[in-house]
Fold:
Amino acid sequence: MALSGHPVSFWIDSTLPSSYPALSQDVSVDVAVVGAGLAGVVTAKLLKQAGKTVALIEADRIGTGTSGHTTAKVSALHQLIYADLIDQHGPEKACLYGESNQAAIARLADLIAADNIDCDFEHKPNYTFATDNDGLDQVKAEVEAAQRIGLPATFVGSLDLPFAIKGAIELPDQAQFHPRKFMLAIAATLPGDGSHIFEQTRVKTVEDEGPCRVITQNGPTVTAQDVVITTNLPILDIGLYFAKTYPQRSYLVGGHIDPNRAPQGMYIGVGQGYRSLRTTPTDDGGTLLIVGGEGHKVGQDDATDERYQRLEDYLRSQFGVEPEYRWSGQDLKSFDQLPYIGQLTPAHQHTFVATGFSLWGMAKSVVSAMVLSDRITGVENPWAELYEATRPTPFVTTTSIQKNLEVGAHWVGDRFKGLFDSTDSVAPGEGKLVTHKGGKVAAYRDEHNQLHTVSAVCPHLGCIVAWNQAETSWDCPCHGSRFSTEGKILHGPAVKPLEQKVCD
Ligand code: FES
Structure:
């Protein structure tokens, strides 16, 4: 199947690579922040503003993980959420949720204004639209729920989209921006006066024994009073966050649109075949239309090519736009719809996490930064209790049991894949699970007929990885770790690469 777009995130392609040094000697700071996506960068910024020295530590480069692969809508309207939140948690908590996400938009705007950051930040209305009667009922219920908890939401009957809708909820004064331009600009303000950024520095573990010790694979250690872990799924296997969330993958395509035909807001549909839409300015003076969708649980199927194809077809048929970019993003959904922001466990007094943003991570990253920086600096925060990471969570719900059973099924069932296949059966351009000397091997043969073989056993908790043809990667169906054909980590929670295997 021939896909058209260049396989890279527009946000990464349109910014220069960062080049902060790797950690090369022991360092001591007030707070170590592990993971330089939006949550990590803003947490480090707020802590430094509050007078703390910080070390921001990134395994790869700033903003190249989940925050560099998003649609980058900053909103308190999360498709459909408020009717569910009121049902599940009551109106007071739903109100705090809305209030915190609205406050995040304002805080982001303040940060941008204070440092005069050029990151294409714009206030826009955000819409969730329905194209059928079922969706319309859900949208109307969402308008009612959002208004009940005090959000300025309204129902609208039409939108500036090139197809008919049944109705939509509008939330005004939301925002969009270029996330990597923002993260790089904020990061540039961090080093100095005892604060640091270290890239290409993978953290192995954190010891929370006052002071905390952040142990890296590079060798040296960062000593800190407090540690904040913002690595999508926490890299530490403590606190069972891998069982309290599940990884969701979604896909995006983008291409230039005639600015006169470009829709003016941000949009997302409801239902299985939802599409998420926004535009962004490009450096050549043009306008890029981004369409996202096709979300699914990681490891649920491997029809990645077809998912991209459907998005590309949509871009062409609905907007007459030719795809130029395609990329995918991955985030963790929490079972009670609230992110986990706070202490790693009740026993970890100085190690904090932020995870489970459930695909709406831009505003929630900023919420996390506000909550955690207040926590560390001893300031009372109105949303800390709602999001406390150690809160009793509904492990035993139909959804959580089903998702964790799926993990168990993968752990057992995937061990039988490729049982009778050898490396000879791998065609050029193909990745396949094979068996070699009784061991499970992930084998990829490149276009030059060169074979690349690594262990198929995920170093996180031992599931068997699966081949992702469209992105040429090995993906773990259990908690979403991803690896290159050479075994290099592309996405955690794994902190070790796939082991090399020689199959001669
Ligand atoms: Fe957990 Fe692979 S990501 S076992």
Q: What stands out?
A: The longest strand covers residues 245-256. The chain has a mean pLDDT of 92. Residues 458, 460-463, 476, 478-481, 493-494 surround FE2/S2 (inorganic) cluster (CB under 6 Å).
